[in-house]
Amino acid sequence: MISNNMKKIFEIGLVPLIVLEDAQDAVPFGQALVRGGIPIAEVTFRTDACLDIIRAMKTIPGLIVGAGTVPNLSAYQKCWM
After folding, report:
1. pLDDT > 70: what percent of the chain?
2. Can you give the pTM of this predicted structure?
3. Nearest alpha-carbon partner for 80 in 61, 46, 59, 54
4. What angle do CA 5, 77, 13 make, to 5 degrees?
5. Which string of b and e fits 12-31 if b means at least 16 CB within 10 Å?
6. pLDDT at position 68, please?
7. What are the residues whose beta carbons fall under 8 Å from the beta carbon of 45, sequence distance 6 or more?
């Protein structure tokens, strides 16, 4: 059985790759994605702010947030704890 999130991803047809330097930009950026009809974001581990960005985006109703370019299991676990 396919999850509701995966169904939504297939419906949208793309996953924007997000690289932000400042966590203060995360919520406005995520809200803009939702308003624009693309309620999904893959945040990369390319900046020092990536964990804070993921945590901030997880608070946005309707936004599916994922982590990309994750260097190791420990970093992945920090995203979702």
Report:
1. 89
2. 0.81
3. 54
4. 25
5. eeeeeebebeebeebeebbb
6. 81
7. 67, 68, 69, 70, 71, 75
To 5 degrees, how large is the angle CA 8–CA 27–CA 59? Answer: 60
H/E stretch holding 27 reads helix 26-35
Name the β-bridge partners of 42. Answer: 17, 66
Q: What is the pLDDT of residue 11?
A: 92
Six token digits for residue 21: 């330097």
Polymer length of the chain? 81
Task: Note the pLDDT of residue 19.
Answer: 92
Tokens 């979702």 correspond to 80
DSSP conformation class of 60:
S
